[in-house]
Amino acid sequence: EAGVTQFPSHSVIEKGQTVTLRCDPISGHDNLYWYRRVMGKEIKFLLHFVKESKQDESGMPNNRFLAERTGGTYSTLKVQPAELEDSGVYFCASSQRDSGRLEQYFGPGTRLTVT
Amino acid sequence: QKEVEQNSGPLSVPEGAIASLNCTYSDRGSQSFFWYRQYSGKSPELIMFIYSNGDKEDGRFTAQLNKASQYVSLLIRDSQPSDSATYLCAVGIGGTGNQFYFGTGTSLTVIP
Question: Within an 8 Å CB–CB cutoff, is residue B46 touching chain A?
Answer without folding.
Answer: yes
